[in-house]
Amino acid sequence: MEQKIWTVEKECRLDEFLRRELPLLFPEKDVSNSKVRRLIVAGSIYVNGRQCRIPAFYLFPKSKVCAEIEEDRFFFEKQPEDIDFVLTEQDVLFEDESIIVANKPAFLPTEGTIVESRKSMHSCVIEYLWKKNPSLRNPPYVGIMHRLDRETSGVLLFTKTRQVNKAVSDMFQNHSAVKTYRAVACQGGIACRHPVAMNINGQKQFVIENFIGRVSAKSAKCRIGVLPESKGGQYAKTEFELLGEKNGLFYFNCRLFTGRTHQIRVHLSRAGYPLLGDELYGGESYDRIMLHAMSLEFPHPVTGKLMKVEAPLPEGFDL
């Protein structure tokens, strides 16, 4: 999330001001009028500390305008490979009064973006629950507690009541929720800044722990890389088990101890095993990034009972 603050010099409308200033912030991007309008309506703009969703809002000299921009979302345009997904009972891995755990397909984002027409797993869960209880006047509550990348499939947990949000959030923060992924990788170079491959000496089991963070200056080849803590890097730890090799591909189980952005992708790339399909981090081109959230173990937020929910392996992930 990038934050930019301006001081207004001349009277003008908010949308006019942003149409002038945002292209200067992103000189190599196409900042269209529709993107500016969506950014305002989505609630990402603050005027003098107060959220403003009115494109025609009038600005006066010395006003402070703050924009909170997540670049990937802001510049996203619907792509042909986005899927039109409808959640059904067979996609629900577990559900009770407090939580629902579903199997997210690839090519579906976890949550919505400023493109209102774009589907997400979150919107699909809301639609599913509303169809189960059509007497509700308003959409049912669905809380987002963790996320999967758009091309990553597998186990995704949502809350159904606000009362359990803290307990679920805490279990992800204190790592009592354990995520295990299946990854299919190739061998190759590292497409990241600081491209120093780790020597794992053919080990079947190994742990990678370091500090990672956003390194995506305009000249960088990837978005997340190894950064010292003093430069904003966050501690990241992953345990890997090499299950075997088939047709030049390597199959791993990956256990997350932390949940940083692109953590498995970065760690496997540094080990010399970039994910198949993950060209951003040095992998070979493929139909998708071959990463699947295979299981989630967690204490139930109400009963405390230890649970394990598993999502079946999609085609191509089984050794």
In short, what is this structure?
α1 (14-25) crosses α2. The longest helix is centred in the first third of the chain and has 12 residues, at 14-25.
Structural write-up:
- The protein has 319 residues and is α+β, with helices and mostly antiparallel strands.
- Helix content is 17%, strand content 30%.
- The chain is built from six helices and 17 strands.
- The strands form three sheets. Strands 7, 8, 9, 10, 11, 12, 13, 14, 15, 16 and 17 form an eleven-stranded mixed sheet that branches. Strands 1-6-3-4 form a four-stranded antiparallel sheet. The protein has a two-stranded antiparallel ribbon with strand order 2-5.
- A hairpin with a 2-residue loop joins strand 3 and strand 4.
- Helix 1 (14-25) packs across helix 2 (33-41).
- It starts with a strand and ends in a 9-residue tail after the last strand.
- The relative contact order is 0.12.
